[in-house]
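Severity: low
Component: inverse-folding endpoint
Summary: output formatting inconsistent between runs
Steps to reproduce: submit the following structure tokens with default settings.
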């Protein structure tokens, strides 16, 4: 470079800016021809806007350029993103660390009005234990006046699964949301992250500048392992000469249109491919895509047998078991492939209607299932009858849910008195019996006991209403009731005794 003065000046190069070590600088009208230059400084060497300063900008001479902070170095085993990347006043740098390393220091720094970065440069330290680097500020002494997140547990863990224990500068060991690393901006493009703090589940959407087209996926997701799904797309300029291939869509049709929506037969750059499936088929993939430099922007979709929505069966308020046909393709949540059978199960009652539906052409076919109270058999109880109750209410018939209790006639008792319940037409226990109540037999010292029924017939097994007759041997007198009756398993009178009489 030829200088017009006899004296050479020492030039300090900072990025693309050249600041003269003396007030003199190359004249803009001499050497800056053809180069876009910023506004020239005022004659007194100042700039109108406060966020700009008068510096020597190489061939452009003294120019008003935005104030900038110095270039930062990327931390070892880490990354950083400056937004905006030109490092103007107010720009913010965000630091992150590679897998296996944790940030020790402040995550963010600001380019201040004095052209210095706030705080100090953080470090990425190896994380081989549960608790991150122990060289971290104590919260109670260093974080006064700062709004800090919840501190880590004593063992260096966090209660919430979506957070991790990290050193957060002055806040010390803190539970911070898990984040994916910052993303570089694609050349000739941009991206938007929602939400913008790169937490698990955040989605980044890429776009390209005018005249450029995206090559690769437009979207990426921050995954649970703190990595972005897919790969970084690129923004490329089109190649119009190479046509895109003509394809066939099984069980559907493809149409090729130009920018005026006119049908064409040889698609080139910028033309559109539209996919439509036959009736009863569902499109899986992108229905419309564009030809970019000889390649289709999206893969060919497929036409699958239309599935059925699970949500449409929720109105029945029943438990459902699905039987998916073997070999069916994987399908998204809430949908079942064609041929799937839905088996309905009543939660309270039995069935008196169809209990299955089948997925056909996107609809569940078959009669609507209905849950009704199916009654149980009103069985015959010899020497007794039943009482049916449900929630304290007595029923005449054994409907679903009632509990059956036994009522035996006088002189009879139930053999097994455990209750039985009607469950969808079946009793939970088998039928018990009402058996006769017997009175005990015994011996009479110095006498004889005889048992007879109500018709005076002798019996050896006295039952309800039978009689017991006592007779003493010769020389003995009876003390007590000579005759007594069996009533509900007990003798009406106590056993008499035979006492020796007078000589």
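Observed output (run 2 of 3):
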């Amino acid at each position: 470079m030829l200088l017009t003065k006899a004296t050479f000046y020492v030039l300090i190069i900072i990025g693309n800016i050249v600041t003269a070590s003396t007030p003199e600088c190359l004249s803009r009208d001499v050497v800056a021809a053809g180069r876009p230059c910023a506004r020239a400084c005022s004659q007194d060497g100042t700039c109108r806007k406060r966020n700009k300063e008068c510096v020597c900008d190489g061939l452009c001479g003294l120019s008003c350029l935005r104030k900038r902070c110095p270039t930062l170095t990327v931390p070892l085993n880490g990354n950083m993103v400056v937004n905006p990347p030109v490092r103007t006043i107010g720009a913010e740098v965000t630091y992150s660390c590679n897998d296996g390393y944790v940030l020790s220091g402040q995550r963010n720094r600001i380019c201040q009005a004095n052209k210095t970065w706030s705080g100090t440069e953080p470090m990425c330290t190896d994380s081989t234990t549960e608790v991150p680097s122990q060289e971290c500020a104590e919260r109670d002494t260093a974080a006064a006046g700062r709004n800090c997140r919840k501190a880590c547990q004593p063992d260096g863990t966090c209660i919430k699964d979506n957070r991790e224990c990290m050193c957060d500068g002055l806040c010390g060991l803190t539970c911070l949301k898990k984040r994916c690393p910052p993303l570089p901006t694609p050349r000739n493009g941009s991206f938007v992250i929602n939400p913008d703090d790169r937490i698990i589940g955040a989605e980044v959407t890429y776009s390209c500048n005018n005249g450029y087209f995206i090559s690769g996926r437009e979207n990426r997701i921050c995954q649970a392992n703190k990595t972005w799904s897919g790969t970084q797309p690129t923004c490329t300029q089109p190649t119009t000469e190479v046509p895109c291939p003509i394809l066939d869509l099984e069980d559907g049709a493809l149409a090729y249109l130009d920018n005026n929506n006119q049908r064409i037969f040889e698609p080139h750059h910028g033309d559109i491919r539209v996919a439509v499936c036959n009736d009863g088929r569902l499109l899986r993939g992108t229905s419309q895509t564009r030809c970019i430099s000889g390649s289709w922007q999206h893969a060919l979709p497929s036409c699958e047998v239309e599935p059925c929505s699970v949500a449409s069966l929720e109105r029945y308020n029943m438990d459902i078991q699905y039987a998916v046909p073997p070999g069916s393709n994987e399908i998204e949540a809430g949908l079942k492939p064609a041929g799937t059978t839905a088996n309905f199960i009543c939660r309270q009652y039995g069935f008196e209607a169809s209990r299955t539906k089948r997925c056909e052409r996107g609809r569940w076919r078959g009669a609507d299932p209905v849950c009704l109270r199916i009654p149980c058999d009103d069985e015959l109880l010899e020497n007794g009858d039943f009482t049916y109750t449900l929630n304290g209410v007595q029923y005449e018939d054994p409907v679903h849910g009632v509990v059956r209790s036994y009522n035996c006639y006088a002189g009879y008792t139930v053999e097994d008195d455990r209750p039985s319940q009607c469950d969808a037409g079946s009793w939970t226990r088998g039928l018990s019996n009402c058996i006769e109540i017997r009175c005990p037999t015994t011996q009479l010292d110095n006498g004889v006991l005889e048992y007879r029924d109500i018709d005076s017939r002798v019996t050896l097994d006295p039952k309800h209403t039978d009689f017991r007759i006592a007779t003493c041997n010769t020389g003995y007198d009876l003390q007590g009731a000579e005759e007594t009756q069996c009533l509900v398993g007990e003798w009406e009178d106590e056993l008499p005794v035979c006492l020796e009489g007078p000589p």
